[in-house]
């Protein structure tokens, strides 16, 4: 089950890269081409945020080492997700500034920003309670199931954010006549969305009881 | 936790109804107005499919009765979801026919149709194995955790289908200039999406270990 999680995670990464580099304008944060700046957003939000966060959730099962090491890897991968997620988010705000588009009006943006803020809180909470062990052993034992269940809910929300993001972009391209039904690019976007969805599902399966 | 699941389920139902009846064209399967036919789709896919299916998952915890009764309610609510889901699906195919739009090209449609087909299989499987007890007690015991985990994955997928559907419709309305950022209708769609998302999250919390 855990191998399927890794597999779908990597498939989604490869498909996303093919889409952004081959079918779209490429990925460049400092570009004058606003579309290249925009593409930093989907690339970092999946490859930099959802994928490392999912792998961090799997760390307790996939790393052949003692618990303490796994815990450090879990925390560190989530920190990577947090930092790269901030880059991905700032890219879309930069794109909106370049195009004078309004911020945070779509369902995608609402789900995404809510997920990211709650993820930040969950990370700080985890750092203080479990890493720095600010709470007693009994409190940590009581809090752990909640930490897990909230983490799984956040992955669920992050996947919803990714799917709505792909949907928003492909609807926008369709409305401009730049994406036709059943075209190769359209199918590629859909397969990318399914791979991200199945990554979420299999990570959830793998960490579940 | 289970009360929050019911609450978000009902909030989503009310918001969806306000959107379709007040802000959009209303709901009518037999109408000559294609948009009224289309509106049957989101209404039935949430109120007729996702909501009863979620409530069916909660039946083992929310119904104060013996196990056998709960099991029948669980099966019956899923049957309701299956039948009303078929009506919701046929509405969107009818709409596409009326407008000569192609079928099943968007990410929303791929996630939706995959979810619905797998849901149908899961229902038939559950009926044969658990209701008609075609399998031995030991097999049923082995299979039950898989039935649960697949059910939770399907709810996850169904919520993703709903979110991408709302995103597709709102992007389409925006591209026609019929929906402006931060407008009341736009916020209503987003709150509906969040309510459906939290219904999914809290059902998952409630049935989880």
UniProtKB/TrEMBL annotation, chains A, B:
<keyword id="KW-0479">Metal-binding</keyword>
<feature type="transmembrane region" description="Helical">
    <location>
        <begin position="113"/>
        <end position="137"/>
    </location>
</feature>
<dbReference type="InterPro" id="IPR006593">
    <property type="entry name" value="Cyt_b561/ferric_Rdtase_TM"/>
</dbReference>
<feature type="transmembrane region" description="Helical">
    <location>
        <begin position="187"/>
        <end position="205"/>
    </location>
</feature>
<feature type="transmembrane region" description="Helical">
    <location>
        <begin position="72"/>
        <end position="93"/>
    </location>
</feature>
<dbReference type="GO" id="GO:0046872">
    <property type="term" value="F:metal ion binding"/>
</dbReference>
<dbReference type="GO" id="GO:0140571">
    <property type="term" value="F:transmembrane ascorbate ferrireductase activity"/>
</dbReference>
<feature type="domain" description="Cytochrome b561">
    <location>
        <begin position="4"/>
        <end position="208"/>
    </location>
</feature>
<feature type="transmembrane region" description="Helical">
    <location>
        <begin position="43"/>
        <end position="60"/>
    </location>
</feature>
<keyword id="KW-0472">Membrane</keyword>
<keyword id="KW-0349">Heme</keyword>
<keyword id="KW-0813">Transport</keyword>
<keyword id="KW-0249">Electron transport</keyword>
<feature type="transmembrane region" description="Helical">
    <location>
        <begin position="7"/>
        <end position="23"/>
    </location>
</feature>
<keyword id="KW-0812">Transmembrane</keyword>
<keyword id="KW-1133">Transmembrane helix</keyword>
<dbReference type="GO" id="GO:0016020">
    <property type="term" value="C:membrane"/>
</dbReference>
<keyword id="KW-0408">Iron</keyword>
<dbReference type="InterPro" id="IPR043205">
    <property type="entry name" value="CYB561/CYBRD1-like"/>
</dbReference>
<dbReference type="Pfam" id="PF03188">
    <property type="entry name" value="Cytochrom_B561"/>
</dbReference>
<protein>
    <recommendedName>
        <fullName>ascorbate ferrireductase (transmembrane)</fullName>
        <ecNumber>7.2.1.3</ecNumber>
    </recommendedName>
</protein>
